[in-house]
Design a protein that fits this description.
With 386 residues, this protein is α/β, with parallel strands linked by helices. Helix content is 24%, strand content 18%.
Length: 386
């Protein structure tokens, strides 16, 4: 069942076995999985079924370094489905090396092991609709073994894959299941603003929420899950200090101290000695029809021996906005993104960055843009390829 908080009056209390805050991918999956095990679930979403500007504005930061991060209104989405509404669909699991104790990266330690997570990879792929949990080219016998003919795995690995959801907008994909469920009640337009903490029992006692009209609503359940994403879950905890003044879960004083977005960029041109047509530049299809993409990675042994962090690299296209690439296909994509249909073709952050606009915090924004005529000339001269 899906209802809106607009109809709620101030002072009401909502009850269930479990409250899940945030109806993005994690929240929707937790709610439906818990319901399948017989729990009554309240799934709380700050936004509505469709984008609501007033709710979206709540995601923005009061201040941030625009040189390091795009505006949150572009990168996050408060809406049923969360940021899956605007994501690209890339799906990759953690690697085993991510769970190794690596002194050169600090003293951090996971509370779970890679082997404990491994059995859940296929279930995650099922929810993400990205096919089978296979991330190695060696396990896909219908595909070539390497990105480049003759290049085999060594310290640099060429057989690792990433999978792509179709892409799945969780709000659209699972809306019917949420509506049908007799155990899940989705309440949209209700923002959790504070976790009330029982310091004696060391557990969440209730949630303080508000609808967009400012009316206060309490949530009183047996258990609580915060599934608001990396930024908003942290922000909610920091806004919920207990009697001691410390936020729930902030036992070390480090909560929120080490957030970082994707560190990425275009670093080099590469030329292989093999024929260019033999190099796998694009996406391929697995036997189940889902898309996969090759990447370069560093082996676990090499990372540990050379004290390297876990990084990956891809073969990328030239900047769409610069017509000197002389590709009719890339110019067509550029013109489409610049057209009135561009908002349909791609989310705002990607559209602006790929079309050469200067998006704060984006490594791709601000590319040199040629005149429209130069792109049209590429279309004509490369008409066959396009």
């Amino acid at each position: 069942m899906i209802t809106s908080a607009h109809a709620l009056g101030g002072g009401e209390t909502l009850r269930a076995d479990l409250a899940v805050v945030g109806a993005g991918p994690a929240g929707i999956v937790v709610a439906l999985e818990a319901a399948s095990h017989g729990f009554d679930v309240l799934l709380l979403e700050s936004g509505e079924e469709k984008v609501n500007r007033a709710a979206q504005d709540l995601a923005e930061a009061a201040e941030w370094d625009a040189s390091l991060h795009s505006p949150l209104a572009l990168t996050n989405r408060r809406q049923l489905g969360g940021t899956s509404v605007i994501w690209g669909g890339r799906c990759v699991p953690y690697d085993e090396v991510d769970f190794d104790r690596r002194a050169f990266l600090g003293d951090g330690e996971w509370p779970v092991t890679y082997q404990q997570l491994l059995p859940y990879f296929q279930r995650a792929c099922d929810w993400l609709v990205c096919g089978r949990a296979v991330f190695e080219a060696s396990e896909m016998k219908h595909l070539p073994a390497s990105i480049v003919p003759g290049l085999t795995d060594g310290e640099v690995r060429v057989s690792t894959m990433e999978r792509w959801s179709l892409p799945t907008n969780f709000g659209r994909e699972y809306r019917a299941a949420l509506r049908r469920s007799r155990r899940v009640r989705v309440v949209t337009g209700l923002t959790c603003t504070k976790v009330i903490w029982d310091s004696e029992r060391q557990r969440a006692e209730r949630l303080e929420c508000h609808n967009l009209a400012g009316r206060r609503v309490s949530v009183d359940c047996r258990g609580y899950v915060l599934a608001c994403g990396g930024l908003d879950t942290t922000r909610l905890l920091l806004a919920s200090p207990g009697p001691s003044g410390r936020a729930p879960g902030d036992y070390s004083g480090h909560l929120g101290a080490y957030y970082i977005g994707h560190v990425e960029g275009v670093i080099a041109n590469v030329r292989f000695t093999t024929p260019p047509k033999s190099t796998i530049f694009g996406y391929e299809r697995d036997t189940d029809g889902t898309y996969v993409r090759r990447r370069f990675s560093i082996s676990r042994d090499a990372q540990l021996e050379r004290e390297l962090p876990n990084v990956a690299a891809w073969l990328a296209n030239p900047e769409l906005a610069d017509p000197r690439h002389r590709s009719g296909t890339l110019s067509f994509a550029y013109l489409a993104l610049r057209s009135p249909l561009g908002r349909i073709a791609a989310p705002d952050a990607q559209r602006l960055a790929l079309s050469g606009e200067d998006v704060p915090g984006s490594p791709y924004g601000g590319a040199e843009k040629g005149p429209i005529g130069a792109h049209l000339r590429n279309l004509v001269l490369d008409a066959g390829g396009t």
